[in-house]
Hints:
The chain is about 60% helix and about 5% strand. By secondary structure, the protein is mainly alpha-helical. The chain folds into 2 domains: about 5-90, Orthogonal Bundle (Arc Repressor Mutant, subunit A), CATH 1.10.10.10; about 100-180. The longest helix is centred in the C-terminal third of the chain and has 29 residues, at about 150-180. It is elongated and about 65 Å long. The model has no long low-confidence stretch (mean pLDDT about 85).
Amino acid sequence: MAQQNRTRYAVLGMLAYKPMSGYDIKKMIDNSIAFFWNENYGHIYPILGKLASEGLVKLQSKPAKGGGRPGRKVYEITKEGLKVITEWVGQPHAEEYFRIEVLLKLFFGMLVTRETSIAAVEREKKMALQALEEFRKIREKEPKAKSNDINFPLLTLSYGEKHYRAVVDWCDEALKLLMKGQTGRKK
């Protein structure tokens, strides 16, 4: 099965919230879904052009604010675009394969000193703790759902919190083993 470009769905999904420029889309991604789905400007802007040519979004140029700069290009999802993103969200998701560099390096840990492996796990734990702190800040800012409503952004945040708590637990376990074991290359 051919790999499908899912950037289009990330962009359509963001525009389902509200009309935005490419810059605004990137900013919203960075402040909401970046812990599990990241996009860069090099992907967003070409996709916006393609989605516009397919009639899934429409361009609403904002007038310039003086200074000779061109107006912002703000995109709005169309009814057809909303139909496409809604259908995609309802389909089964593709099987995900993950790549975790620290695990690849630890797999070959016999090639380096034990201290090198310990440092790698400590960096991984630090990154996980930083992510958990970011999630805490996001959770504090997220508006509470009404009584029976599901807050879908918080549902995805919960996944990230559980994932990184598991990473911290694994790091603690790995560090205990690495500190007492005789693994790795001698200096």
